[in-house]
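I need you to check the entry underneath: sequence plus fold tokens. Let me know what the token row says about the fold.

>
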Amino acid sequence: MILMNVIRQCLLRPARMAGCITLCFSALAFTGLAYAEPFSFPQAWQQLQQVSDHLQAKNQHVNRAKAEEHAGDALNYPSINIAGSYTRLEKPIELDLQDLNPLASLDASSLPSTITEVLATIPSSMYVTPFTEQDVFRASLQAMWPIYTGGRITAAQGIHAAQVSESEQEFELASRELFLQLVDRYYAVSVTHTLADTQQQLVNSLSLHVSHAEKLEQQGQIAKVERLNAQVALENAKVDFGKAKRQYEMAEIALARMLHVPTVSPDTPLFVLKQQPSLSRLSQLTLTQHPALKLLEAKETQANGLVDLEKGGYFPTVYLYGNYTLYEDDSLFAQMEPDWMVGVGVSIPLISRDGRSGKVLAAKSALLQARYTKAQTKQDLSLLIDQSYRQMLQAQEEVEALNASLALASENLRLRELAFNQGLSTSIERVDAELNLTAVKTKQLGAKYRYMQAYAKVMAVSGQVDEYINRIEIQGASHAN
């Protein structure tokens, strides 16, 4: 459309063909930038959810928390392990019968001579019984199963489950923040493209005005200063068009990089709802379902679990244990020792140096901190939804109010154009009317952009992102029709 307008105006003013050629190349460059595969906002949102490295990192954090929760289930199971050992003794363990009663206390002089003679013939090594070798090898299967820990296992598992919930809410918060960022960048491309289009139309219109001014100057109907005024306005419009085009380029690059695509051309138009959503419903949804509140609830659950975990240190631990010998030396001691054993053990803490009382107080402080933070967050969210909703209404009022200004500016430009061509109005008046129309268009476009931002924030804060997408699809379908 821009290029066709430029060509049409060039054909109407062959005397300024060189300037027209420059405008044509400028329009070609701008339309070349704008040409890309159309991308609707729902498509952009779906693409962003798939390619966002930030969301992927948050998702892996959720997976990590779930894996740790699954690992915590093993606390309910017994532990079984194989233990092996090698021991080098100072000397083998032996028992000398001469060191035991009654031989140890026996007085040989009191015995009959025949018995004394018989005992004298027995070597001393015959009295020694070896129990172990000097090198001892052992291998056994050991098992231990806690059956009561004062609630510490249950508390630890509850903390793991709350950490999963916390990571999931962090993912949801990141998703909503990314959604709002996409709204800003997506519609920024549309806005900057429209602004560049508007500036291009202003350049085209002022170029035609300069051509008419030159003819009127040649015919002596206007002074030279009138033509110079039109020429200055044209040059300023060209500078503004260059700025608008660069802003569009930067906005398009930012959106394309965000979506991981070479180029992108948004085709979902800006819109303003005729009927705004209910503030009371949005506030209720925000204060009951916002992920920040659920995240703090998860932190509160973790703090409660930490209190129970630290209090569990004051209770005894009861456990089952067992041992089965897999390998042992061929010694008398090994023959005497049983192959397996099972039993019940109990451990009662009396005095500890781990500062249990201080840890309990710290855990209670963490619990109170989570509760106070949750209360403050509710106030902040209530204020945020109220402010965003009123910003949306303000932007809507500006858009509707500027409709009348746009109609007035268009009509004023038409009348100034007719008056200037008939010599009844100055070039300054005609240029001012053109600039005023462009300013009104720009102001209304900015109001529509602010409305889309405020509406998106209201829906994101209240958790109505899907409804926002559905509304965009409805508006896009009605716009196409």
